[in-house]
Design a protein that fits this description.
Largest sheet: 4 strands, mixed
Low-confidence stretches: 7-13
Number of strands: 8
Radius of gyration: 20 Å
Number of helices: 8
CATH topology of the largest domain: Uridine Diphospho-n-acetylenolpyruvylglucosamine Reductase, domain 3
CATH architecture of the largest domain: 2-Layer Sandwich
Number of domains: 2
CATH class of the largest domain: Alpha Beta
Structural class: alpha/beta
Strand content: 5-15%
């Protein structure tokens, strides 16, 4: 209210009328509650977009289309397409593959799926740091500290652990930490063979 000097947020949620506490808009709750379905979309110029729900379906698609680009947040691929004129006729979104979104706290460390968003990783790291002894969490603290400086909140909400690794950027914020903490990666090929 301009007359009382109260200058709170000007936007209101159309769902329940409460004020937004942050400048960042919330993700529509209706979309969060929707049932996940596998998708196959056709775009301009013959571009195809797939969204499998299971690892087996993803491996089948990758076997059919070995040159397909896998995407989660599309942050790097989007830049390649829009600014570097890269052409990817087949894109496979792995955002809904359950096995790749796993995040498990184990006695000897963390198990992190490649599609886990960086913001989710940060939340789990904070929880582990709070619950475990300091000598058990040095790696978690180092990764969490680096994530504080990694991009903005919007990017961390869509960017994934696997995407960050596979981009292999020479200025990657996280890849040196994965190496320094002796992180073990399990990689599966399109035939289902697993390597460590």
């Amino acid at each position: 209210d301009a007359t009382s000097g109260d200058h709170g947020p000007a936007s209101h949620s159309e769902i329940n009328g409460t004020l937004y506490n942050e400048k960042e808009l919330i993700f529509p709750p209706e979309l969060v509650r929707r049932n996940d379905l596998p998708l196959k979309l056709l775009g301009f110029g013959g571009i195809r977009w797939y969204r499998p729900l299971k690892l087996e379906a993803l491996l089948d698609l990758k076997s059919l289309y070995p040159n397909a680009k896998l995407v989660v947040g599309n942050t790097e691929v989007g830049i390649e397409i829009n600014f570097k004129n890269a052409q990817y006729p087949i894109l496979i979104s792995v955002t809904h593959v359950h096995e790749l979104n796993a995040m498990n706290i184990k006695e000897n460390g963390l198990e992190i799926g490649s599609s886990v968003r960086l913001s989710k990783l940060q939340q789990v790291l904070i929880k582990v740091i709070a619950e475990r002894d300091i000598h058990e969490t040095s790696s978690c603290r180092a990764i969490n500290e680096q994530l504080k400086w990694f991009a903005g909140k919007q990017v961390k909400n869509v960017a994934s652990v696997g995407g960050n690794i596979c981009t292999a950027s020479p200025i990657s914020d996280l890849n040196p930490l994965w190496m320094a903490t002796r992180t073990e990666f399990r990689i599966v090929d399109s035939k289902g063979n697993i390597r460590t």
